[in-house]
Design brief:
By secondary structure, this protein is of the alpha+beta class. The protein is about 30% helix and about 10% strand. It has four helices and four strands. The strands form two sheets. A two-stranded antiparallel ribbon has the order 1-4. A two-stranded antiparallel ribbon has the order 2-3. The longest helix has 11 residues. It starts with a strand and ends with a helix.
């Protein structure tokens, strides 16, 4: 799984609004991430937007390989060209 939400979550909903793949859904007691939809924002942004907007730093990343994330992105959005992929390679974060 690429992203998960820790116990520090205060259920503010910021991550739900920012997720471009709609991988984050309301849950009890905190939102949950669908690992089949999460691309860590690869193809949309240069970093995971849920982690950027979380006010309490309750988003934890378990980085997957760029190839795995790119494959998931291609499967989910076959007609959409990915954006900002150069940032991922430059950062070497995946």
């Amino acid at each position: 799984m690429a992203v998960f939400i820790t116990d520090e979550c205060v259920t503010c909903g910021a991550c739900l609004w920012e997720c471009p793949t709609e991988a984050i859904a309301p849950g009890d007691p905190r939102p949950v991430v669908d690992p089949e939809l999460c691309t860590e924002c690869l193809g949309f942004f240069g970093e995971s937007q849920c982690a950027v907007v979380c006010p309490v730093h309750a988003i934890a990343l378990r980085h997957e390989s760029e190839e795995a994330l790119a494959g998931r992105y291609a499967r989910l959005y076959p007609a959409r060209e990915p954006q900002d992929t150069w940032i991922w390679r430059r950062l070497g974060s995946v």
